[in-house]
Amino acid sequence: MESLKSKHYLILSFVVSLIFVSCSSTDKEADFKVEQGYALGTTYTIKYEATDEEQNLKPLIEAVFDTVNMSMSTYLPTSDISAINRGDSTIAVDKYFKEVYVTAKEVYKKTGGFFDPTIGALANAWGFGPEMAIDHMKKSEVDSLLEFTGFDKVYMSDDQRIIKKNKNIYLDFNALAKGYTIDLIGRMFDRNKVKNYLIEVGGEILTRGNSKTTNKVKNWVVAIDSPTQDTEQRVLIAKVQLKDKAMATSGNYRKFRVDEETGEHYVHIINPLTGYPQKSNVLSVSVVAQTCMVADAYATALMVMPLDKAKELLKSTSEIDAYIISADKDGDLVEYKTKGFQELLLD
Fold this sequence. Notes:
Number of strands: 17
CATH architecture: Roll
Helix content: 25-40%
Structural class: alpha+beta
Strand content: 15-25%
Subcellular location: Cell inner membrane
GO molecular function, one term: transferase activity
Number of domains: 1
InterPro entries: ApbE (IPR024932), ApbE-like_sf (IPR003374)
Number of helices: 10
CATH superfamily: ApbE-like domains
Order of helices and strands: EEHEEHHHHHEEHEEEEEEEEHHEEHE
Keywords: Cell inner membrane, Cell membrane, FAD, Flavoprotein, Lipoprotein, Magnesium, Membrane, Metal-binding, Transferase
Distance between the termini: 17 Å
Strand order of the largest sheet: 1-16-15-14-11-8-7-4-3
EC number: 2.7.1.180
């Protein structure tokens, strides 16, 4: 592992850091359209090379967001997952829900439960969900909520109904549904013959083709923030070349809740095995995979896992590469990269 003391690139805008590093100021971009907006509780920027001047895919992009929300948004009372969480076992879920469910089961098993979509009750209690938080959580309350945790307590029937061993189990696919939405938008682009595009939703990315210019053809280049809590100025710690790949980053350093009475910070990533917000020297995990859903899920799992277990998982899981940033005992940033991720980095 290497010290990161000298790797600092000054930056003022997070979205710019993620996307618009693919072309220098002297390059004239090809005819790319840019769609921006707000969805899934975050911002998005989508850049694609239209097949002709008349092609407008914004309505189809918005339709994908609507489809995923109606199926899997815990913030939408009329969604399928909200009905399931209220105890409705009569709903036959759609093909989108099923695809996310199947991937979630696979990652749950491969990570030994460190990735678990049944942490919804815990997420709500700690103040990171749509339901009312519990102030000053006691150990007895955490232990009680753990009874409703465990994806092995949830099944899908042959007719695609969700069966829960305990009616109080609260499903939450937010840790991979955003990545899945990005994949669906990518599939829509593919059906519409779009060959070159970059889709970014809340910092998670899918690329296809390249960021063409009139002078040269270049891979898409995106950047990773340094894991600091300085929100006024952001620092880039790495630049990554992506071609036909997805990348998701998970971290404890941007999103947290503060107890108004005690002042204690609770980070948004919860360990499903302990029931508590994760306390770890791992600050940030970036995962590259073929699909954004897989990258999204593993980024969450690796963020929760002890560093030694995370390294073991990476050595045995060929479908992903990762870049982990942690802090040593002196507070200095330290990095761990798989060989495949190292090959994607720019100097």
